[in-house]
């Protein structure tokens, strides 16, 4: 018996030495990792942001954790974020390439790619979005057209309490579809419903323990475990988008694009090169990136905004008063009206701040050895920009832990945007769709607040503002009380 225990102890010691994680010289400090598992068993995946805050209080604004045997550096606070993502933008603009999300997209798209593919496709996206009216009246008309459908739905349900979760997803999905395909889909359309459902299913897996297990224990990746559902759903989404692309190839008129898809097909035809990064597989990955990014973050921000507007009737009332005064007899709001609505602008930005929809950004990686805040960080190190630490940094906000539009107003009541406002990240990896999202949020919120009053249902209990943590955060499900304004 004693001999068996000694052999077991020796075996465990050998395994410990074999898998022991050695922190590089002058690497940022952090908690001691456990062999094989790293620090993941020491973190609460349901309340990870709180654990990250505690680690920052103990180790500083720059610290390290281990995801399995993979070292990661967590960045906290506006000063560190500016130094890494802006001052050293090129060095911190890489992406890790061996996580579940990378294997899902199969090296396509624009969000997770690196090198020439990323640069070419980001440049193409920015130019094409601008050409299709981003920031112009033509884009406003597309957004306002989609808003008319949600207005009609709310009018039919005036005096009731509705569940807004899927409704806002459908609106955001259709707006990005207008950009990508030049068309919208009925809310009952199979393409729309399928992709929203698959997005939801994958988000739940990515936000849960199975994604961590996949990233942490590569030996398990080919086993029939629940994370395989992510890849099955990914194939279904690619198939549905492939069908859309096939329809566009048949019906398009070269040089007369209806949306970004036609522009991409024109670009493929123009290049006509087998070695070009512009190809049909890359197009489908590109569309998948933009659809998810354009749907999930905007709809979740709207959900947070209406949750706070219902439970802060004074803020809602002040916005409505300002909207009424500025718009007067105008039939519809315009994005330019925002310049005359400082309080409403402040409310929308405050909703984005408290929504904190992408709290840990999309992970970055260093493209070469570098130094940050006195620490040495090797090439290829996974970087986690904790945007939540910036959006709630106590030294940067008047009311860091409350919903209060005053965070974006100066003493004269004018709208101001503090440098710590980074919901879209910063640097060359900054969100492609920032301009579209800003326009959507303004036009949707102003149009609906002008027409309706939103109230917390009498039987809904105490409001719970605690978000459901994940790659993208959302509020817990709630019901939206809708009343017509007189």
TrEMBL record:
GO cellular component terms given for this protein: cytoplasm; membrane
Annotated TM spans: none
One Pfam family from the record: p450
InterPro entries tied to this protein: Cyt_P450, Cyt_P450_CS, Cyt_P450_E_grp-I, Cyt_P450_sf, Cytochrome_P450_fam2
Record carries keyword Signal: yes
Main subcellular location: membrane
Organism superkingdom: Eukaryota
Designated name of the protein: Cytochrome P450
